[in-house]
Amino acid sequence: MSVNQAGCQSKQGGFTLVELAIVLVIIGLILGMAFKGKDLIDGAKVKSLAAQYNKVQAAFNIYFERYGAYPGDGCGVVALGAFTPCVGAKNGVLDTANEVNSALIQLQNAGMLSASDLSTPFGVPWSISSSTLATFPPAGTNYLTFTAGGLNPPLATVADARYVCALDRLIDDGANGNLAAAARTTVRSGLAYTAATDCWGLQGKASVGLRLLP
């Protein structure tokens, strides 16, 4: 028996099993809410990507109806950034660097897209792949894609593979990715996933392309 300075018996206390159980339950609830919150944020980012793509695609169609050509199609160096139709050869795709680089700027200057529409939810700008560089198969097509620093051709493997897979599940076939080169799929990724792939279990980076033209 130990006695303190006041001559009273000291008591040694601790957590009871009930108290420990309550603490563990609270910790479990906090962790559960944290993971659920992350899932909601991830899902929101994927939906935001899909919404931006739909908006850009709609802007391309509206521009065509208004000016008789797609933005950027036929643009030369002088026409870069102008929102009026370009005067060069128009073939329905963007196959030169000037055409690719001017397309999104034209849509912004025409008031069809805002500055925020030109940036992805991940802080990197949207870009358009050239039809002649075959960044995404099949050749002769243009894709809206991620880029780092606004370079043309767009840099590959800058997107989180999990989001690319989830995006395909949301707006496309959810299976092919980049496997069926001859198919007219919306999403091109370079990922070899199938319908059974766990998108959120993927690791690493991937390229992503959302088909615009033709």
Automatic annotation (TrEMBL):
Reading the lineage from the top rank, the first entry is: Bacteria
Q: Which SUPFAM superfamilies match?
A: Pili subunits (SSF54523)
Residues that span the membrane, as ranges: 15-35
Keywords attached to this entry: Membrane, Transmembrane, Transmembrane helix
Recorded protein name is Prepilin-type N-terminal cleavage/methylation domain-containing protein
Record organism: Iodobacter fluviatilis
